[in-house]
Amino acid sequence: MARFNKVILVGRLTREPECRTFSTGGKVAKFGFAVSNRKKNTQTGQWEDEPMFIDCEAFNRGEYGKLADTIEKFCHKGSQILVDGRLHLDTWDDKTSGQKRQKHKIVVEEIQLLDARQDGPGGGSAGGRSSGYSGGSVDNYDDSGPGASPASGGHGSDDIPF
Questions:
Q1: Is the CB of residue 34 less than 8 Å from the CB of residue 52?
Q2: Which three-class secondary structure state does DSSP give residue 145?
Q3: Domains, in order of start, for the chain
């Protein structure tokens, strides 16, 4: 059986990233992420958002890996980003009940910043193997006007429900 664990989502940060530096010099950025599905309410006939909340973590990896630094510097509560990563199942023993607990999270490997910059429209990409640089360029913008799609080929934000 083939093994493939890949997640690509567009959403918004639900809280400020929390960063921690390790004694080895590594760094992790943890943040909450929300995505939304749209479904039609059968009683009212209206479209409604159905939010899903996901915990994410991103690491500085490798010689040029600065993904956690990029998230700490450019991503804030409410920021819209594209997350590219993999699912990971965290398991632990509940301290109060002693029961086994678990939850899925996303280990982020690459992001694209989708919010407009303060000095102009567009978005950018940061981190990841596809660019060959895990520190990320945040100057990869399409100058085609307000609401422009990221130059990396993403879609505009007009059809995103949140």
A1: yes
A2: coil
A3: 7-159 (2.40.50.140)
Beta-strand (E) ranges in 66-99?
Answer: 80-93
SS3 43: coil
- What gap in Å lies between CA 70 and CA 63, rounded to an integer? 15
Rounded CA Rg of the chain: 17
Distance CA 126, CA 140 (A): 9
Q: Which of 107, 91, 87 is nearest to 29 (CA)?
A: 107
- Tokens read off for 13: 């940060």
**Closest C-alpha among 105, 122, 102 to residue 113:** 122
CA angle 137, 150, 76 (to 5 degrees): 65
Residue pLDDT, tens place only, 87-136: 999 999 999 998 999 999 999 999 999 987 655 444 455 544 333 333 44
Question: In this structure, how many other beta carbons lie within 10 angstroms of the beta carbon of residue 61?
Answer: 16
Q: Decide: 83 and 11 in contact? Cβ < 8 Å.
A: yes
List Cα–Cα distances, 20 to 12, 17, 132, in angstroms. 21, 10, 24
